[in-house]
């Protein structure tokens, strides 16, 4: 509800598991998400992908409510594209029918928050005098963990490795490194995550949503990162990515290499690890 002269605030809350079946359907993705949103989601592991797409869906509904419209009322959700500003905050770009809607504002402030599987999005039209300011904290799903730990400490648990690929790591023709080498790096990161959260190396039970997106060769430098995205009493789910940041370039001379202007994603995956019940420490708590 709004009063005359007051701003209309759009709020949407959903459980991301409600979208599990729909996110498997190509028609739903095409209808609800802009191509760049789908492209970004496809770079993520399974858990992180669901979190990302659920956050976008909630944001689109919140924006529609802020503009006085509902879902399926003449605007396709894909026409509301949620991008990311340089400071990490979400930005809204309206296209097609969404751009033609009458709006009391030239800009929208948007916030997306996650807690366990629950996603909350809030959209607030900004008056012209305040266009360009941020009325809501720039907290987005890119920086907010899916599940908050029970300790009251830092809610983000991450790990990082940077390695140079050696000549001895070449496995296939043309000096290509096998994918198992990257998965070994991922395994070390998952081990570090469980040591930091539980005081135990844990038992890696599975990888899922493994995608190899670019080749790796001797002389390349690879940065691998891990982020704890959810946890139960014994299970930890970790989102993993590996990017090539320096590429060997031996065309002119064997020792030549070049720094990449943009890190190139070479592999992404989701790992599930299990902490033995007898090893769970007080630091891990219980969910």
How large a portion of the residues is in β-strands, by DSSP E? 25-35%
Helix content: 10-25%
Number of separate helices? 5
Tally of DSSP β-strands: 12
CATH architecture of the largest domain: Roll
CATH class of the largest domain: Alpha Beta
Strand order of the largest sheet: 6-10-11-12-9
Shape descriptor: globular
Strand/helix succession: EHHHEEHEEEEEHEEEE
Mean residue pLDDT: 80
- Roughly how many Å apart are the termini? 37 Å
What is the fold named in CATH at topology level of the largest domain?
Answer: Thiol Ester Dehydrase, Chain A
Taking the sheet with the most strands, its summary is: 5 strands, antiparallel
Low-confidence stretches: 1-5, 130-155, 281-287
Q: How many domains would you count in the coordinates? A: 2
Return the structural class: alpha+beta
Radius of gyration: 22 Å
CATH superfamily label of the largest domain: Hotdog Thioesterase
InterPro entries: 4-PPantetheinyl_Trfase_dom (IPR008278), 4-PPantetheinyl_Trfase_dom_sf (IPR037143), ACPS (IPR002582), HotDog_dom_sf (IPR029069), Ppantetheine-prot_Trfase_dom (IPR004568)
Pfam family, one: ACPS
Family: Belongs to the P-Pant transferase superfamily. AcpS family.
Subcellular location: Cytoplasm
